[in-house]
Every structure is written in C-alpha cells, then in structure tokens.
Amino acid sequence: MKNTPLSNLRKKHAAYFRRIGIVQAGRYTRRSRIEYIVQRSYDALPKKLKQYIDDPEQAIQVTTNLIMQSGSEGQVNPYEALRQVAVYRQKKSGDNTRAYIWARFRSEQPSVYAKFNSYMYRQGYSASGYWFDNVALNQEGSHIEAICELPAKASGVAYFVLEIEYDFSGQELDAYLY
C-alpha cells in the first residue's frame, strides 16, 4: 500500500479498505494513520461477521499493535486479519450448523415450514429471525436435535415447540411442530 495521506484516506469508500492489502509500519507511517486504516477496515466487514467480534475496540487496538510491531518488514492485511478473527469465532459459535439445518428444513419440510412461518407471522415475528435467536442445539455424535420454544398464543391454534432432528451420517431430517 502506498503512503496515502490521512486526509485522502478519509474520502475513500468501504470497498477501498476491503482491498487495501498489506499495511506496513515504517518511518513515514504514524500510529494514527494505521489505526484509522484498521478502524475503516473493521467498518468494511460485513454485518454478519461484525457480530462475532465481541469488543471491536480491542480488536482494532490488537491489529494496530500487530502492524506497529511488525515494522517495515511486516506483512499484515488489516481487513483479512479482522475477517479471519470473525470467521474463526463464527465457526466456534455453531451458527454455520444452525444455518445449514435451517436451509435443509425449509427445502425438505415445506409443509411444516409453512405452518411455522404462518404461526410466527401471526405472532408478529420473523420465522427465521426468531428461530436463529431462540434455537437450542443438542448434539450426540452425528445426530443433532434443534429445539425452538415458540411464543404462547392467547387464542386459536397454539404451537409450543418446533423440533428438528437431523442426522449428518444418513442426511435425514425430520421436523415436528407441536
């Protein structure tokens, strides 16, 4: 990355900071400039990845310090460093498994999904948003059970639980709404 003045960096769009490349600390590079680049690189992350970085200020400071310590021989891309941290924490959270089970549920059990979706719509919730926020995963070997307790309804047909059972070894999915 060439030495662009901080005043010119302030005019750049988020896409610039996604592809900024390697940032090196050197004789002409001040900490404030590097910290600004790291901050804008964090801002350029997709919203889905930002949620996995618990303390953005700490992540920005750690990345800035990494660049400063590596000096002019360093090979640090701030956007990729922050993205890798977020992707690692996403994998550890189990959200990829939730998303995979949700996609399979929607495509393989359309009748149960339609009931669930309409029930949640009548309650004033987004079906996918509520499911992702309230599902509990229980895993035993290759068998995963996803249980989502539903909000109570005052009158009419009321459902209490959406249960999805998925077996990774046999690729079988069963869904129950009761």
Order of strands side by side in the largest beta sheet? 1-2-3-4
Number of domains: 2
Compute the CA-based radius of gyration: 23 Å
Note the overall shape.
elongated
**Beta fraction:** 5-15%
Low-confidence stretches: none
**Terminal residue distance:** 58 Å
Structural class: alpha+beta
Q: Which helices and strands, and how do they pair?
A:
Elements: H1 6-9, H2 14-18, H3 31-43, H4 47-50, H5 56-70, H6 78-93, H7 95-108, H8 110-123, H9 127-134, E1 135-140, E2 143-149, E3 161-167, E4 172-177
Antiparallel strand pairs: 1-2, 2-3, 3-4
Helix pairs in contact: 3-5, 3-6
The gist of it:
The protein is of the alpha+beta class and 178 residues long. It has helices at residues 6-9, 14-18, 31-43, 47-50, 56-70, 78-93, 95-108, 110-123, 127-134, and strands at 135-140, 143-149, 161-167, 172-177.
How is this structure best described in words?
- With 178 residues, the chain is an alpha+beta fold.
- It folds into two domains: 6-92, no CATH class; 95-177, no CATH class.
- Helix content is 52%, strand content 15%.
- It has nine helices and four strands, in the order αααααααααββββ.
- It has helices at residues 6-9, 14-18, 31-43, 47-50, 56-70, 78-93, 95-108, 110-123, 127-134, and strands at residues 135-140, 143-149, 161-167, 172-177.
- Strands 1-2-3-4 form a four-stranded antiparallel β-sheet.
- The longest helix is centred in the middle third of the chain and has 16 residues, at 78-93.
- The chain is elongated and about 70 Å long.
- The mean pLDDT is 89.
